[in-house]
Amino acid sequence: MPRWKTVGGTLLRVAAVWAVSTLTMLALAGILPDFSLKSGDGDTATQIAITAASGAGAFGVLSALVWPLLVRALLLMPALVLGLLVFVLNGSMLLIALSVNPDGRGAAEPETAVVVAAVMSAASSATSTFLTVRDDDAYRRRLARLAVRRRRRLGEDGGSDEPPGTVFLQLDGVGHAVLREALRERENRPPVMPTVAGWLQGTHKVTPWRTDWSSQTGASQLGILHGSNEDVPAFRWYEKKSGEVMVSNRPTSAAVLQRRAAARAGHDGLLTVDGASRGNLFTGGADQLALVLSVAARRGKHNRSRSGYFAYFADPANATRTAVSFLAEVVREICQSTRAKLRRETPRVKRGGLYPFIRAFATVVERDVVVTAVMGDILSGRTAIYADLVAYDEVAHHSGPRSRDARQVLARLDRSIALIAKVAEHAPRDYRIVLLSDHGQSPGETFAGAYGLRLGDLVRAGCGLPVSRRAGRTPSGAEAREAGRAALHRPEKPRVDGDGWCGGREAPAGAGSADDTAFSDPIVLASGNLGLISFPDVPGRMSREQIDARHPALLRTLADHPGVGFVLVRSEAHGAVVLGADGAEHRLDTGEVLGASPLTVFGPGAESAVRRTAHFRNTPDIMVNSAYHPARGTVHAFEGQIGSHGGLGGEQGHPFLLWPAELTPPVAAGEELVGAERVHQVLRRWLEEADGPQVPEKEAAAAPVEVAAGAPAAPEASAAQTPAAAEVPAEPRPATASDAARTVQDSRWDGAPAAPFTVVSRVVPNKTR
């Protein structure tokens, strides 16, 4: 195209955007009482139009020249604060634009200026996008220029002769069966995910893979990104040596887990060489980070997770669009939950309080920032990109894996995938897009909804401890409480104290009585349909014999409950033992089975998955997996979720891996892909097939350097340990009464910082091919 046509087209687009901004400003001046474009004496229509045009022009120039500098200067702020500050800065620029009017016309109250600036930014951005998209050549040239400019800023060329890059998009919580259903046409309706369906018909292949026993993001993503998820028994668990509860989505815990995994694997992670990590729990060794939890607690210029925010907030219209979408999602959730109540849908959980806002953040804010960051990485020609889109997982927990609400989220995720694929067509290098999930979800009524008591109540009853009046009145609670007290030779007292706790105690709930003051209450935690029970006053892992001597009725109470599938304990005589109903036992270390194995119903691979977890250092005293009903595919979550994951049973353990057909298959024909660590090896192999990053192994270590307890390491030392220099836990501190009272009902327990670690200094490997 001749240059004069290119310049002319650009000028016409600028004029069109200017005209729309001017008209928007005139309309807002007529609607808003605190926004005026004329002087106190009154002006003619021509004067008002000139004032609007000059104000719109000045605002456009400031947005183009000053705005990127302001955003870059404020990147050290948290994402939420920066997002809210965008509106204040935008309004301030509008006030400046009005003040430079040579005639002195135009005035607005500060709060009104924020509204006017937001609407004008949205209108101008929409106009510019519409005009550019209609001109495919202009759109292509714009993306190409942006890509080359970014590469040159990094000291590189355009990258057109680089080997292909790889984008790994994780659709959190989408099981293989759910994906297959979303790709099929039903009743003459198009697929829920048409973009992915088109890929599968031509360019891509898909296969399921099987998770470890802990089928949740913390264990799966840690194994996928860092190559090791050993000693991660669940989403949350109690560690006796440090006296702390580890929670996978807590920044301090995520930083600790990442250091441990890097030490065991012997390398920094999948994304060590020219990688970017977006929206994940862990960095994967990447330098470019956005919304990564393991570094969220860090502060400082060099280790703050900042990349991606600039690309998103550099356009002030993004904040406006996201704010509108956020509010729309909150309203959508309120309407959907109200409809579920009116229709009396079952199973159903409470969806009030802050949940509408949590859902809106996951489905709108997190998605927008992550997708924008990935597009920026693609245009920069980055080699390996891993991003997690959590929207489906959040909605499916409360609405159900196959609900209408969840299908709508899948449709919006498909549009995000299509947008990323479109941008990849204009990247400075070819890109291969791999889709995968970290786990699936299994539906089912909650344990509390089905049986009237929570797992913590059942454990307390089995121990002969007081339980709530409501739980004590349920058949399960009454039977367990009577069995527990009979085993301890304590007569049952019918009286209920004023605090509503059964068992005849004079002391408040949680306080010991004269006959068991030596024992602290058990700590009961939940990870989907997986329960974890620890006795904090006993150092080390308790054996079956110790538990029976202390609480004779507990293990049988748990194993015989209809809502429990099996119980894992350690026996001094037989090693790891799985207990089931009616006295069934499966001794994992010897292979001996007494009665029918409780693991049979959970399908192939259950035995090996449980055996592996049974020998983790952090495995609790007792692990409980809920019952699984194969005919319905349902489980019972120990949390308030009707779509859950975390243990064995159903689709939660069968995520998917979808890859371009030109890559080698993940496993040989007839072989099953098992475990997150195995998936890590597959992804590394795919990177290497295109002459991609060779993940550098760790150098030999020097003398150890102590790091303060709970303090996350800097990026350079985040994975500096070698397998031989593993973490050295702190000495156990005595458990307190408040620790012991923590149960499954309070999953938000926020303890002290994590245990100290020994981090070994090393030479940073050269991150170039």
Automatic annotation (TrEMBL):
Q: Where is the composition biased (Low complexity)?
A: 708-737
Q: What is the protein's species of origin?
A: Streptomyces asiaticus subsp. ignotus
Gene3D superfamilies membership: Alkaline Phosphatase, subunit A (3.40.720.10)
Per UniProt, the keywords (alphabetical) are: Membrane, Transmembrane, Transmembrane helix
Biased-composition ranges for Basic and acidic residues?
479-498
Source domain of life is Bacteria
Give me the segments passing through the membrane.
12-32, 44-67, 74-100
Segments carrying the region annotation (Disordered) are 469-501, 708-769
Q: Which InterPro entries match?
A: Alkaline_phosphatase_core_sf (IPR017850), Phage_holin_4_2 (IPR007165), Phosphodiest/P_Trfase (IPR002591)
**What name appears for this protein in its UniProt entry?**
Phage holin family protein
